[in-house]
Specification:
By secondary structure, the chain is α/β, with parallel strands linked by helices. The chain is 51% helix and 18% strand. 36% of the residues are buried. The structure holds ligand C2E and magnesium ion (3 copies). Keywords: Membrane, Transmembrane, Transmembrane helix.
Amino acid sequence: QGKRDGRGSFRFFERAMDDALRARALMECDLREAILGGQIEPFYQPVVSLHDRELIGFEVLARWRHPERGVLPPSEFIPIAEETGMIGDLSYGLLRRACRDAASWPPHLQLAINIAPQQFQDRWLAEQILAVLDETGFPAGRLEVEITESALIHDLEATRATLTSLQNLGVRIALDDFGTGYSSLYHLRELKFDKLKIDRSYVNSITMSDERAKLVDAIIKLGSSLGLVTTAEGIECSGSLGWLEDQGCDFGQGYLFGKPMSKSEADQYVEGGTTEVSAKTAAERAAA
Ligand code: C2E
Ligand code: MG
Ligand code: MG
Ligand code: MG
């Protein structure tokens, strides 16, 4: 009896595994088709100068416009794309589309694109990006590549080589989610970045505690003493905004300025400025 029960529950377990594997295989298959079929779409989040509150450009954030499930966030498909090696194709398509979208925007506006850790191991990455820039006519000087520290843990030498070729093209490099990795200071010493993006977990907490605020202030000072500009991610309230401006943080990004938006919403944003903050800023400018 006991044995049979054991086998029964094993079979049940097997079936659950089977289902999970099948669902995963289906998802991979779907994603491959989505990449080929152009369902992966760039959304754009405004990046604003904290010196004058002018829009300086957008961060490109991937969205999957799924025919049945609606618009899916990157957490649902970027990890799968990374594990299966589809991330290169995904990024290539996304960058191409973003560079074409940006052609209708004023020429001072910049684009920042996220590149996954394993893509820096690919010795053709700079070549591929150059091909997109050539094809679309988007200038390298308007492009920034965002890298997280997890990329640096894998293979520092390969990553260094890729970063150097990108910088030789004129593309800038930002260290994303700064403060969440393990050995931030080591990487700052070993690699030449152009920008630090202070993670939103730090930015959110500055108005909550003095200690947190001191930490963010220290990061801004560290950046500027190394010749790097800083961006604060995830600014959600005007209290944090004012504080960051006072500390000399260079750029800001967050729901206060705008959530990631579709190309047509970004067009409107570029033309009018649709958020409360930019409206307020416009009023302030008019009054000044
Ligand atoms: P990230 O590069 O740090 O992007 C910022 C994330 O923070 C975005 O989430 C954005 O919507 C969110 N965010 C921005 N401002 C605020 C705010 O004020 N409050 C809150 N609560 N959240 C805010 P999203 O779009 O879901 O992207 C998540 C992550 O997915 C990105 O983090 C990035 O690491 C990754 N990702 C997105 N697109 C790509 C891509 O094309 N390639 C790769 N490799 N990774 C991507
Ligand atoms: Mg990013
Ligand atoms: Mg980030
Ligand atoms: Mg982040």
